[in-house]
Amino acid sequence: MKKGEQTKRKMIDATASLLQARGYSGTGLNDVLEQSGAPKGSLYFHFPGGKEELAAAAVRSAGQQWQGNVLALLEAAPDMGEGAQAVCRLIAQSLEETGFENGCPVATVALESAPRSDVLHAACSDVYGAWQAIIEERLLAAGLPRGRAERSATATLAMVEGAMLLSKAYRSTEPLRRVGEELAESFALLAHR
């Protein structure tokens, strides 16, 4: 990787980390430069759209990283229920490791800034759409009809994201554990319908 690409990657990674912990408003460009070690002039060279463009790139990057983690867990699991529980455990572990500071790299931006920014809205929507498509594909492969798979994928994503939010609010991984168990039971019922 060339030096310019390394600098760009460092800024994206630093921004993703900061967004996850502080949100869009709490993430300053000076913080990004300090955490990434990037020279000040490189920011607008790589991201002429400034903070908004950089944040969108960070959301997409973090979304792809989490997508890879989730795919690995789902592929290793014997069924969707076990996969859902493994995903909930991974999120719970991430919350505990950061003292419940970090949350979903997409939700923080979606809640705070996406309504006011078309660029951030598109990034958040694309990432959530990709995550939902993964769940839907797995449910279709398990034999669910398309309409049911679409609804179940939306409900699954909403439950996991909601459980993460509740876990942060309660400073407890109990909501994630419960949702993992509920999803496992629901998927087992769907498989035996």
Structure notes:
By secondary structure, this protein is mainly alpha-helical. It has one domain: Tetracycline Repressor, domain 2 (Orthogonal Bundle). The chain has 9 helices and no strands. The protein is elongated. The termini are far apart.
Class in CATH? Mainly Alpha
The CATH topology turns out to be Tetracycline Repressor, domain 2
Q: Let me know the average pLDDT.
A: 93
| CATH H-tier superfamily | Tetracycline Repressor, domain 2
Q: How many domains, in number, for the residues?
A: 1
Per CATH, the architecture is: Orthogonal Bundle
Total number of helices: 9
**Residue share in helix:** over 70%
Cα distance spanning the termini: 51 Å
- Give the structural class: mainly alpha
Spell out the helices and strands N to C. Answer: HHHHHHHHH
For the sheet with most strands, the description reads: none
Shape call = elongated
Total beta strands: 0
Beta-strand content bin? under 5%
Radius of gyration from CA coordinates? 18 Å
pLDDT < 50 runs, ≥5 residues: none
Index terms:
193 residues, mainly alpha, 79% helix
What is the topological layout?
Blueprint: H1 3-22, H2 29-36, H3 40-46, H4 50-76, H5 80-97, H6 107-112, H7 118-141, H8 146-170, H9 174-191
